[in-house]
Amino acid sequence: MFDSDRFIQEKTTELANTKENTIIACSGGVDSTVTAILLHKALGKNLHCVFVDTGFMRKDEPETVKKIFNTLKVPLTIINAQTRFYEALKGITEPEQKRKIIGKLFIELFEEEAKKVNAKNLAQGTLAPDWIESGGQLRDTIKSHHNVGGLPEQMNLELIEPVRDLYKDEVRKIGLALGIPNEFCQKQPFPGPGLAVRIMGEATEKRAEIVRKACAIVEEELEKAAEEGKMTLPWQYFAVLIPIKSVGVQGDARAYGYTIAVRSVESVDAMTADYSKVPHEVLEKISVKITNTLKDKINRVVYDISNKPPSTIEWE
Ligand code: XMP
Questions:
Q1: Of 22-26, 58-62, 157-161, 263-267, where does the model show the most confidence?
Q2: pLDDT in tens, 153-212
Q3: Which among 130, 139, 142, 269 is the best mutation to test ligand 1's pocket, defined by most ligand atoms within 8 Å of the CB?
Q4: To which H or E segment does residue 299 belong?
Q5: If you measure from the C-alpha of residue 191 to the centroid of ligand 1, how many angstroms do you get, rounded to a whole number?
Q6: Angle at 234 between CA 184 and CA 314, to 5 degrees
Q7: How far is the CA of 233 from the centre of ligand 1 (A)?
Q8: N or C: which end of the chain has fewer CB within 10 A?
Q9: Closest alpha carbon to 286 in 215, 227, 236, 196
Q10: 107, 155 contact by CB (below 8 A)
Q11: pLDDT tens digits for 200-253?
C-alpha cells in the first residue's frame, strides 16, 4: 500500500535542503501541479512556477490553470510563446523530431525565465512511465516524453524530479493528501507536447484549432454520457487529427476533408491500456457534433479500437 502522507513528509524534508531558487514547469496537469504544491511546501518563495502557453493547449486550459493556482495560493507566471512554437514546428512531420523540438524550446524558455529569477534548479513532474518509455541504456525508446527525452545534453539547470519513481494513481493520492480538490486530481492526463502530438504530421496553428475543438467535443460528450449514467468516465479520452483528405458529401455537394480519430482508453498507470467500450449512440453523437461544428474541415470520424500494446495511448 502506498503511504502518501509518509511520502510527502519524507520528500518535503529532503527537498527543504534545496537552498537555491527553483523553477518549475507547470502544464496544468495533475503531475506538475502536485509537484509544484509539494515543492512549494518545501521551498516556499524560492519556488517559481511557470506556465508556457505553447499554442497547443486544450480549450480554456490557460484560464483553468490560472484559476487553480490562484485557489491554491501558489504564484504562477504565464509565458505566451505560441508564435515561437508554431515557427519552430514549421515543416516538421516526424514525431520524435516534433517532440525533441518542443522539449528543447521548453528548456530554452525556462532557461530564459530561470535567469530572470536566478534559479539554479528546474523541477518537473516526471513519472516512472515517462522515463521508462523514453528508453536509456536498457530499454528501447518508445517515444521521447518531452519532460525526459527532449532535454538538451548541456543544460545549465539542475534537474529535480520528486515524483519520478511514482505512478499516476500514487500521484493522485499525494494530490488529495496535499489538499488539491478531488475533481482536479482525477483530471485525465495530458501529454507535455500537448495537442502537437494529436496532429499527425506538421503541427500548424490552423490544425491546432481543429483538434482543440474536436478534443473539447469528445470531452464534453463523454463527460455528459458518464453523468447521465450511460457509461463510466474513461481514463483518458481525446481527438486526433489525421490531415489526410477523404471524399464525403455535405448537403448535395462533394466534400473533401480531413479525418478525426476518437481515442478513449481505460488504464491504471498508462503502461498498458484497453480501448473504452463506448456505447455506439455516444460515439454517433460525437461524430455528428464534430462534423457539424467543423463542417468545412472534417467529413469523417473514426474510433480507435486498439489496445496498448501494441499501440500507445497518444498517436505520436
Ligand atoms: P503513450 O502515448 O506513451 O502515453 O501511451 C502514456 C501516457 O503519457 C501521456 N504522455 C505524456 N506525458 N509527457 C507527459 O508528461 C509526454 O511527452 C507525454 N507523451 C504522452 C499520455 O497522454 C498517456 O497518458
A1: 263-267
A2: 556 788 899 999 999 899 999 999 988 888 888 889 888 899 999 999 999 999 999 999
A3: 130
A4: strand 298-303
A5: 5
A6: 90
A7: 19
A8: N
A9: 215
A10: yes
A11: 999 999 999 999 999 999 999 999 999 999 999 999 999 999 999 999 998 889
Nearest to 74 by CA among 110, 34, 114: 34
Of residues 81, 60, 78, the one with CA closest to residue 70 = 78
Range list of H helices, the chain = 4-15, 30-43, 61-71, 82-88, 95-117, 128-133, 168-177, 182-185, 205-227, 280-293
Closest atom of ligand 1 to CA, residue 197? 19
Euclidean distance between CA atoms 184 and 15, whole angstroms: 24
Ligand 1 centroid, distance to 190 Cα (angstroms) = 7
pTM of the model: 0.86
Which residue has its alpha carbon closest to ligand 1 atom 19? 191
Task: Identify the residue whose C-alpha is closest to ligand 1 atom 24.
Answer: 189
